[in-house]
């Protein structure tokens, strides 16, 4: 499941750079439809300052104030600003500022001409990930808590 979500994170980031918002919304809807219901709570794109530019939870044509949310103070955003190589980051559970739900953020930087221009993220709900996580091998003495 993590590999699928990472692939979507990569592909959606590339789509964001090349598609207009209407086409990007359709791409997001197709991606969400390919996963179990509720797996992806939100798809969001932030700029290099941590300002949300796009959220799949904000309707098309909504006022700019609807996405006037900053994630600049969140560790899962800042991690990309300090990395030498772009990589997937999986956050601790966080309470979404737009969704109002507890999710785990899978994020990658958005790069343009080799420069970080923000990040792309999937807010993943616990239920679809919890089942496969229960089956992961665990070294002796390790526990996995799934709420």
């Amino acid at each position: 499941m993590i590999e699928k979500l990472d692939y979507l994170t990569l592909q959606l980031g590339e789509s964001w750079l090349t598609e207009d918002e209407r086409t990007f919304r359709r791409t997001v809807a197709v991606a969400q439809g390919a996963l179990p219901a509720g797996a992806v709570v939100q798809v969001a794109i932030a700029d290099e300052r941590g300002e949300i530019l796009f959220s799949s939870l904000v309707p098309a044509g909504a006022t700019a104030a609807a996405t006037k949310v900053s994630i600049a103070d969140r560790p899962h955003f800042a991690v990309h600003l300090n990395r030498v190589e772009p990589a997937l980051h999986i956050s601790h559970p966080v309470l979404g500022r737009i969704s109002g739900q507890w999710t785990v953020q899978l994020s990658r930087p958005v790069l343009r001409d080799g420069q970080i221009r923000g990040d792309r993220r999937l807010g993943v709900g616990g239920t679809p990930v919890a089942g496969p996580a229960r089956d992961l091998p665990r070294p002796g003495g390790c526990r996995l808590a799934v709420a």
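Helices lie at 2-18, 21-33, 75-81, 126-134. The first helix runs from residue 2 to 18.
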